[in-house]
Every structure is written in structure tokens, then in C-alpha cells.
Amino acid sequence: MTKILMVCLGNICRSPLAHGILESKLPSDKFEIDSAGTGDYHIGKLPDHRSIATAKANGIDISSQRCRQFQQSDFDVYDIIYVMDHSNYDNVVTLARDADDVSKVKLILEDVASADSLEVPDPYWGGAEDFNKVYALLDYACDKIAVKLTQ
């Protein structure tokens, strides 16, 4: 089974969406998806209500997810670690023990040729429109990832 971890700062906006979106696109008997944050601000809490609403509007339920902080031991558990931006990348790679750990970490938009930027913007300080844009960006990226992983 391939295990994939989605990581953002607080694990309440972007990574829960990415977690739910990719999970909806891959067979659960072959892939396990989870999410975490680099910060410890929201441990044990639900994703942001706007992320839950945005996912629900797109037919995905992320309301059972709980926020957790990325741990060095995640390198032992996950095969691929997708981060949302360069800051997340730096924070995760700082905990890496060796080149093998580092090789697991990728920007989620790395393989999306049409992306204007390699960073998924944080919608936390924005409104519903910002969450919808992030959803669309992650949905497109997860389509590409799902195709790549299932070929």
C-alpha cells in the first residue's frame, strides 16, 4: 500500500482539502492518504469550517479529519509527502534525517505544468472565493497525481 501525506502550515485549510480530494480519486485498498501541519496551532481540531464547506460543496466529506502536527517519524510511515508551499517544504525538510527522507518531500504543484506558481496560496485570511480557488487548484493537481500513481 502506498501511503501519502499532505502537509500545510496549520492542517486546517489546504492539507485537509488535498487529503480529501486525493483520497476521493484513488482506490482505498491501494492508497492511504493523511494530512498534517508543520505548526502545532490546531492539534486535535477539525479542519477550518470553510474547508469543510468547500469540500462538501464538491461532494467530499472531510469532517472526520483531525489536525495533527508533522513528526519526524512520518518519514518512516509515508512514501510521498506533498507540501503546499516552499515554507512548508523547508519546515519538513529541516526534520529530515537523510537524503532518503528529503527525496520523499515534493511540492504538490511540482508536476502541474500549467501552474503559475509552485505554491498553493493559503486561503485562511480570505473568503469563500479563496477557498474555491484553492480547491480547484488542488483538484487539478490531485487529478495529475492520481493518474501518475495509477499508471
Automatic annotation (TrEMBL):
SMART domains hit by this protein: LMWPc
Domain Phosphotyrosine protein phosphatase I as annotated: residue spans: 2-148
Catalytic site positions: C8, R14, D122
CDD domains: LMWPTP
Pfam families membership: LMWPc
GO MF assignments: protein tyrosine phosphatase activity
Keywords recorded for this protein, A-Z: Hydrolase, Protein phosphatase
Entry keyword Phosphoprotein: no
Keyword Hydrolase (UniProt): yes
EC number: 3.1.3.48
Similarity comment text for this entry: Belongs to the low molecular weight phosphotyrosine protein phosphatase family.
UniProt-recorded name of the protein: protein-tyrosine-phosphatase
Species of provenance: Gelidibacter salicanalis
